[in-house]
Amino acid sequence: MAKVALVTGGSRGIGAAISKALQAAGYTVAANYAGNDDAAKAFTDETGIKTYKWSVADYDACAAGIKQVEEDLGPVAVLVNNAGITRDAMFHKMSPQQWKEVIDTNLTGLFNMTHSVWPGMRERKFGRVINISSVNGQKGQAGQANYSAAKAGDIGFTRALAQEGARAGITVNAIAPGYIGTEMVRAIDEKVLNERIIPQIPVGRLGEPEEIARTVVFLSAEDAGFITGSTISANGGQFFS
Ligand SMILES: NC(=O)c1ccc[n+]([C@@H]2O[C@H](COP(=O)([O-])OP(=O)(O)OC[C@H]3O[C@@H](n4cnc5c(N)ncnc54)[C@H](OP(=O)(O)O)[C@@H]3O)[C@@H](O)[C@H]2O)c1
Fold it and tell me: Which residue ranges does the record assign to the Ketoreductase domain (predicted)?
């Protein structure tokens, strides 16, 4: 039977490309999302992939959502923690709310999701947890103290959990994308994008969501079992860690 892969934020942007690539690789895919019902419906119509609505920032909702996915499709073998948001502001203007929303979604969301799939993965002696961090978690970014802190935290979480999962056949890895052409990045002022961001990328362009998705498929495979605790950069040469 096909393995089940659950992708958070899996109906739009990078997550949608990940969901489609995993489906093409033979997985039964469940795509979680937060609130954009129209995008989720269009995604299911296009791909046949089932979508599930809950917030990764809500522990109980994650537990209930994962239970539902497992009842519908079977045990989750691959978890891709991709859901993420930005609430950018220079630190002196950043509100506690902007800090909290980003930490709750981009960092605590990983705890909330992984905690409910972990016991089953340990029992079955197989699991793949793939966390989508960011180049800005590796290098820091002005205007993103909240986002950089959360994304750096994702890498620490990955390294700690990799050690705990190793003997149980569970690998835990992170991917740190650079700037990828999704709605999150298109929301950046075009002048800033063209004059300040793209010139910092040696390949001279934004990345494509599919370029992150192929890394997820690689890390999900059974024969990727010796790769754990790593952070794979996919950033067009913008930053080497
Ligand atoms: N784009 C980039 O350049 C870039 C670079 C580095 C890292 N990343 C990371 O890559 C991931 C995907 O980014 P993206 O650019 O594809 O973002 P996006 O286009 O804005 O899509 C975000 C997805 O996450 C979902 N989401 C947001 N908050 C959620 C929550 N609380 N619970 C469940 N789902 C939630 C959204 O659901 P709805 O559709 O319901 O809104 C949507 O499906 C994020 O973690 C981001 O930080 C992106």
Answer: 3-178
In-domain check, residue 157: yes
The pair of three-digit structure tokens given for residue 87, joined into one six-digit string: 């609430």
CATH of the domain at 115: 3.40.50.720
Q: Which domain holds residue 129?
A: 4-179+209-232
pLDDT of residue 210: 98
Beta-carbon-side half-sphere exposure of residue 57 (alpha carbons within 13 Å) = 12
Alpha-helical (H) ranges within 48-182 are 59-73, 96-106, 108-124, 135-139, 145-165
CB 201 within 8 A of CB 236: yes
Give yes or no for residue 84 CB within 6 A of ligand 1. yes
Is the model's pLDDT at 13 over the cut of 90? yes
Q: Which of 58, 2, 11, 5 is nearest to 33 (CA)?
A: 11
197 within ligand 1 shell (Cβ under 6 A): no
Is residue 69 over pLDDT 90? Answer: yes
Per the CB < 8 A criterion, the answer to whether 14 and 81 are in contact is: no
* Count of structural domains, the chain: 1
Q: Is 213 in the pocket of ligand 1 (CB under 6 A)?
A: no
- Residue 241 belongs to some domain of the structure: no
Assigned token pair, 101? 């929303």
% of the chain with per-residue pLDDT over 70: 100
DSSP type of residue 32: E
Q: What's the pLDDT band for 184 if we cut at 50, 70, 90?
A: confident
pTM exceeds 0.90? yes
Mutate to test the pocket of ligand 1, among 11, 33, 58 (most ligand atoms within 8 A of CB): 33
